[in-house]
Specification:
Elements: E1 4-8, E2 13-14, E3 22-23, H1 25-37, E4 42-45, H2 57-71, E5 77-80, H3 86-99, E6 103-107, H4 116-129, E7 134-138, H5 140-143, H6 149-155, E8 161-166, H7 171-181, E9 186-189, H8 195-200, E10 205-208, H9 215-227, H10 230-246, H11 254-262, H12 279-291
Parallel strand pairs: 1-4, 1-10, 4-5, 5-6, 6-7, 7-8, 8-9
Antiparallel strand pairs: 2-3
GO molecular function: 4-hydroxy-tetrahydrodipicolinate synthase activity
Family: Belongs to the DapA family.
Subunit structure: Homotetramer; dimer of dimers.
Length: 295
Amino acid sequence: MFRGSMVAMVTPMQAQDGIRDAVDDQALRRLVDYHVDNGTDAIVAVGTTGESATLDYQEHENVIRIVVEAAAGRIPVIGGTGANSTWEAIELTRSAQESGCDGALLVVPYYNKPTQQGLYDHFKAVADAVPIPQILYNVPGRTGCDMLPQTVARLADIDNIVGLKEAQGTVERAREVVELCGDRLDVFSGDDFNALGIMRAGGKGVISVSANIAPRQMHELCEAALSGDDERAEQINDKLSDLHQAMFSESNPIPVKWAVEHLGLAGAGMRLPMTRLTADNQQRVLRAMEQAGLL
């Protein structure tokens, strides 16, 4: 259903006091056009990179609505609707469906560290309540909870659970999920640095931070990898490898928001506790952007 380079899009904000910088609706619309024009295969709105943790409920809904309106059917939109409360995840997912999203991305509940049975029950409850296609998101480095492949395989039997964004960090984990789930569920890399490896292991693409500033390159990487053009995919990946690392020189989305600003795509606004990229890492990001041919 979804495949290729799916950008985990930043939420542009107007720089104010850093505590509640206002969402920049016009810049948000321009970013959607930028991704359509540059070949991005789908947009994920209000994920981690979109600063979901610091948007209130109304802002969360509004950003998704604007992205859907701006996309106007030209590109699929996946709304980030995960929460560590099952009822809240249901409400956010229902709202995303009502806004016209093509799918929803639901992160493993964070901080409260549910059991594997709790994870199964949580995602099943959301899927039963809202029929929109849903992609699960496993990122134990942020959530403190690792959803194991066996749990994903159980969830793959639910019709509207269609994918997994796997950010456990290894190609081996993604390969295990692919082997267990087969064609019942698509696997996407949640880490740009191993996206090519995961696609070679049977994954269908990447939900990408780097695509915020290198959308054409990430689309071409996925296109080459998924068509079996290994040489071309390797060439593109090598050129982007430093960029992938630089995007995590500090906590996401700090580096990518600075890079988006540097390219003139959106302003510098970002809400605390996220802070501006340090001078040393600004130079690292610049070097990586030059290596990638973005400057």
